[in-house]
Amino acid sequence: MIVALLSATEVALRQDAANATRLSPWFAVPAVALMVLVLLGRRRWPFAAPAAVWVLAAALSFVDGRLVVFSAAASVAGLAAAFLLGMLPDDTHARIGLLLVFGGAAIVVANAPNSDAGDYLFLPVMFVMPWLGGLALQQRNTRIDAAELRAARLARGREEATQQAIAGERRRIARELHDVLGHSVSVMTIQAAAVRRRLSPEQTKEQEALLAVEQTGREALTEMRRLVGLLRLAGDTPELEPQPGLGQLEKLTHQARDAGLEVDVRVEGQRVSLPPGLDLTAYRLVQEGLTNARKHGAARRAEVLLRYDPDAIEIAVCDDGRGAMAGHADGYGLIGLRERVSIYGGELEAGPRIGGGYRLRARLPVSS
Hints:
Layout: H1 2-13, H2 25-37, H3 48-63, H4 65-70, H5 72-86, H6 91-111, H7 117-198, H8 204-231, H9 249-258, E1 262-268, H10 276-296, E2 301-308, E3 312-319, H11 332-343, E4 347-352, E5 358-365
């Protein structure tokens, strides 16, 4: 709007200039203002509005060759229009815009009085330069948009993979807890049945109570199997071996040593019997730490620490490798450990050690 006002004012007030237009101010002023004002429609018509600047400029030059070249504001509008045409995301429209800029500038030069041979090259090139600047900016914006789109897709992919990893680990935890709890409930049911059979016939109330315990235990086992069946994916095979615990820690460390990893085990405090689920979680923590140290951290030596406190157990696995757990499988193994530890209200820390290597540490509360 300001440029249009300046161009109109310039044409209106400088009628006595040597190179001023010979047209009537009543025609010249609105004509020059219109050539600039069409740029206001660039948001609604991104191609048509800047293209109209050069179409009007070429057309007005046929009416009076002095009109377009006389106004400096009109030249600014031409530069802006060329830049906007270069920024068009549509390649076809951008190329058409280049032809309009170059052709329009050539027509304006041809119709302008007192033009020399150099103007036929200099002026069109001068207006093509903003078009090239707009094109460069558009290509840069396109690259930025593409990079942001790729980053968003990668972020969505990582988020989906993380959720899948969490869901898979929860299914695995559910199956393992089913085995642990199922064994406990089965033992309770069998013991209740054994005690009931030892009762005398007149102890009817006791027999009914123990029979109710048996039936409840069997129903609980049936419902647990159904629940785990819902969590099982097609192709999953049931694990026939009993779930491990820290009682199998020696076997686990032997396997790591056979694979070339030197393992030292240190136990502090008085060993206590852990609940089956907690015992399994502690075992999985040591197993994951040794597996990552051996396979992904390229470690040669690892140390396993078990510290028994009155109300908690601390498990730490330290190695001298390159600390690959954070990068292994995008940290999905670590995600699984966090799921396990969170079930028991524990805390998990994992990260590189000062001086090299990696440390995995967890503290799990032990109910008294």
